Amino acid sequence: MRKLTLMLASLMLLAGLSPTFAQDTRSFTDDTGRVVDIPVEPLRIVSLQDLAITIPLLELGVTPVGSHGRTTAEGVPFIRSSDVLTGIDFDNSDIKFVGNLPADVEAVAALEPDLILMTPWQTADVNQLAAIAPTLVLDDTKRGDFGMHDVLADITGTQDRLATLKTRYEGQIAQIKRLIDTSSITVNVIQGVNGQLFVWHTYGALGKVLRDAGFKFPAVVDAIPEGGDEVFGAEALPELDADLIFATYRTDTLETPDDAVTYLEQVLPDFCNFLHACRENQLIIVPREEASASSYYGLGAVSYMIISQISGRHFTPMAD
Q1: Parallel/antiparallel/unpaired status of strands 187-193 and 196-200
Q2: Which domains does the chain have, with CATH numbers?
Q3: What's the DSSP call for residue 50?
Q4: Which helix (DSSP H) or strand (DSSP E) does residue 59 occupy?
Q5: Which of 246, 259, 270, 282 has the highest CB neighbour count under 10 A?
Q6: Angle at Cα 239 formed by Cα 235 and Cα 241, nearest 5°?
Q7: How far, in Å, CA of 142 to CA of 238, rounded?
Q8: Nearest to 10, CA basis, from 2, 18, 20
Q9: Under DSSP, is residue 268 helix (H, G, I), strand (E, B) or coil?
Q10: What is the pLDDT of residues 2-33, one digit of tens each?
């Protein structure tokens, strides 16, 4: 039956028809330069990237009929970070799991979508997907983490909801600036990965809040292009030091703060001795799901965390 659905979709395309033929459409140029006619009011969206597309859609009040996801060691599918960011997952909603990498094209077709959204990261064949329904490729690496909310709001007509989310965030940033002299504090976000240090110009929600609030970063971090990241060896630790340093750990894989420390120890044993922030007990370790997410809830959680961790705190600044 699923193969038959895909074959019918392909035949409709060849005949000049579309599963969305009864809907009003408009032209949209995606991030690969493809001009696609999409529904003015899409009703059955399939998202093929959970973090970059599904979670922003849910925050905008749009529930896709299907979504890309991950699976546990026991084979149970889940939408990464969605349970803590939106409260919605496969097990408590009508969203259907359509696979990981590549997505299951037949499972997508069986949902009879009127719009398919994906990023270049998804490895399913675009032409096969386009035979099912209008398909847009949206490049989150170019648009930026929160630029995806803007384009998705445009596609789904939820600009008013996005404006509310942005207004709330502006209030959160204003509160941080009122309570903390951010311009006098240096910060950084580092992560140990396979014995090396990963550093981002702006690390997800955490990096956005820190930069928008006016905290200062080490010069070597500011030199990383916006939207980019860089890998450093242990010898770079002094250049990456700051008054306060943040590290993260994955709660969806049952990691704990100790794991974040272990990964940094793999970069350099006794790394703490080489970082002012760590020596002075100013290394702050937080869950990665909220810290790295493209999520307005994540921005709020991070904003509250920063206020609770830093406002009124007496800490030892780095020597000039």
Answers
A1: antiparallel
A2: 2-157 (3.40.50.1980), 165-310 (3.40.50.1980)
A3: I
A4: helix 55-59
A5: 246
A6: 105
A7: 31
A8: 18
A9: coil
A10: 454 455 455 444 444 444 456 899 999 999 99
